[in-house]
């Protein structure tokens, strides 16, 4: 019997790998350990909890038949399963908590169909590849994460929530953004189930707990010639106010609006020759045809336009995409230089209020540097603060969170690896009912749900009855 890499299972993994044939497997411990990690190390709390959690074997299915074989064999052996796409999640979603089988989807990566306003792709398709294929036909994804070069579309739908495009097109969960998806059950005869319309939210953002997404159909929008824009301001409140004005504008298109404290910008060495030092930054993507209106808006808001670049100019200058200074990439830019940084996820009062942001700044302290993303939520422009926090102790981190909360800024815990802990806050009984239907033995990533142990003995219908009316 081969040793268990995780130290948590007693299965014979060599024999298990043989049972999976012809599916390709990886059993080399170093490679299995590498595929047991994601970006949980953003959080010192999660890093301490998860850095020694590993799987035992990786399977790399190339087809849905291969995937069905993996799920059938795991079901037979009661093997814990963790689904992995690009491994760019921030909360340890793709970390096996109980050891077991890791199923990496990146070879199930075909783009199946591009049509008027939609794209259908296999779950393991790389998001940048999808966007490239769409661009050739005059389309682009309505929403995509700043990690598009690594992330898979299935991982984004299972683990993500919003991203580049959300300022115009809303959240992934909003009607019409995920048009349909297929997910496979874990049983002795794994089957694909189709979820359409509102039903996609039975599976979306369930962290791979309640079925393996095999295929997704997503909304696309006409491709535009996006200009990456960087404008700087003397005060953070000015940058934030300008961000709000752009996000609301009725004559300027936008795919991204993001504001960053000047102290964070000092950690963007690639931009050093391009933006004014010690100024607060607003990063955006604006279509070429609206650039004059954008210039007028920045002037009116008291800012300076430091950099505008088309996609070709960006490549010539050798600069990253502007969205690599936004969303969780902002934090990554800082972490590249100093691993003592971490971050929080915080909601802000609606409608966005630059005065409230300004009033909060001195209360937060010098170890908290603000960064806001603008997005459309339920038809209204909202902002999320993803501040850099210079981590010292967990007590201090919780104190900062308390300061936000006491001042009317709700905190969505970024330092917890439970699906109910962060954005969702409460148990999603729809997700759990579908887990019971699709994964009756609870093999898929079960320890990531705090509520699953309380409901796993119930029928799917009884779990659904717990949904608050
Ligand atoms: C620098 C940085 C920037 C980021 N920016 C954004 C952003 O702009 N917007 C955003 O929403 N997130 C963002 N994230 C988080 C993350 O990148 C995205 O959610 C990403 O799309 C996840 O895709 P992935 O393929 O890497 O998924 P993984 O990390 O591999 O998986 C994520 C979750 O989905 C599950 N999963 C993966 N594939 C499947 C499948 N086929 N079926 C069922 N479950 C599956 C996994 O089990 C896991 O729970 C960022 C993270 C980093 C580190």
From TrEMBL:
Domain of life: Bacteria
Record-listed E.C. numbers: 1.-.-.-
Protein name, as recorded: Putative FAD-linked oxidoreductase
GO BP term, example: lactate catabolic process
Domain FAD-binding PCMH-type: 51-223
Pfam families: FAD_binding_4
One GO MF term: D-lactate dehydrogenase (NAD+) activity
Transmembrane segments: none
PANTHER family: D-2-HYDROXYGLUTARATE DEHYDROGENASE, D-LACTATE DEHYDROGENASE
The species this protein was found in: Shimia thalassica
InterPro entries on file: FAD-bd_PCMH, FAD-bd_PCMH-like_sf, FAD-bd_PCMH_sub2, Oxid_FAD_bind_N
Keywords from the UniProt entry: FAD, Flavoprotein, Oxidoreductase
């Amino acid at each position: 019997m081969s040793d268990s890499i995780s130290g948590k299972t007693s299965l014979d993994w060599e024999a298990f790998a043989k049972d999976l044939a012809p599916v390709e497997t990886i059993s080399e411990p170093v490679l299995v350990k590498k595929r047991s990690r994601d970006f949980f190390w953003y959080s010192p709390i999660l890093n301490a909890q998860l850095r020694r959690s590993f799987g035992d074997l990786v399977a790399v299915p190339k087809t849905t038949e291969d995937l069905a074989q993996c799920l059938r064999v795991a079901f037979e052996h009661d093997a814990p399963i963790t689904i992995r796409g690009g491994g760019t999640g921030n909360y340890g979603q793709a970390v096996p908590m109980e050891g077991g089988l890791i199923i990496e989807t990146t070879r199930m990566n075909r783009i199946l169909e591009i049509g008027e306003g939609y794209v259908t792709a296999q779950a393991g398709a790389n998001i940048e590849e999808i966007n490239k294929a769409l661009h050739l036909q005059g389309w682009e994804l309505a929403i995509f994460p700043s990690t598009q070069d690594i992330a898979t579309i299935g991982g984004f739908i299972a683990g993500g929530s919003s991203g580049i495009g959300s300022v115009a097109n809303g959240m992934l969960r909003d009607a019409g953004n995920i048009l349909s998806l297929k997910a496979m059950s874990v049983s002795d005869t794994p089957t694909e189930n189709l979820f359409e319309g509102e039903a996609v939210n039975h599976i979306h953002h369930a962290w791979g707990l309640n079925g393996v997404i095999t295929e997704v159909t997503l909304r696309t929008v006409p491709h535009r010639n996006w200009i990456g824009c960087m404008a700087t301001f003397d005060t953070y409140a000015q940058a934030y106010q300008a961000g709000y004005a752009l996000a609301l504008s009725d004559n300027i298109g936008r795919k991204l609006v993001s504001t960053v404290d000047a102290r964070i910008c000092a950690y963007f060495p690639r931009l050093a020759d391009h933006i004014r030092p010690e100024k607060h930054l607003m990063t955006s993507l604006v279509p070429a045809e609206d650039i004059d209106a954008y210039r007028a808006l920045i002037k009116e808001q008291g800012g300076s336009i430091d950099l505008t670049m088309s996609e070709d100019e960006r490549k010539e200058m050798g600069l990253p995409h502007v969205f690599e200074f936004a969303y969780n990439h902002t934090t990554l830019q800082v972490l590249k230089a100093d691993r003592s940084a971490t971050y929080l996820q915080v909601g802000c009062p609606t409608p966005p209020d630059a005065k409230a942001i300004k009033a909060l700044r001195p209360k937060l302290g010098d170890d908290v540097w603000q960064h806001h993303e603008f997005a459309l939520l339920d038809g209204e422009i909202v902002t999320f603060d993803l501040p850099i926090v210079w981590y010292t102790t967990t007590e201090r981190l919780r104190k900062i969170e308390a300061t936000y909360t006491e001042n009317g800024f709700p905190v969505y815990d970024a330092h917890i690896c439970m699906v109910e802990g962060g954005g969702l806050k409460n148990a999603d009984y729809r997700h759990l009912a579908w887990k019971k239907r699709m994964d009756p033995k609870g093999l898929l990533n079960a320890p990531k749900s705090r509520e699953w142990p309380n409901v796993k003995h119930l029928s799917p219908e009884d779990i659904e009855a717990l949904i608050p009316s």
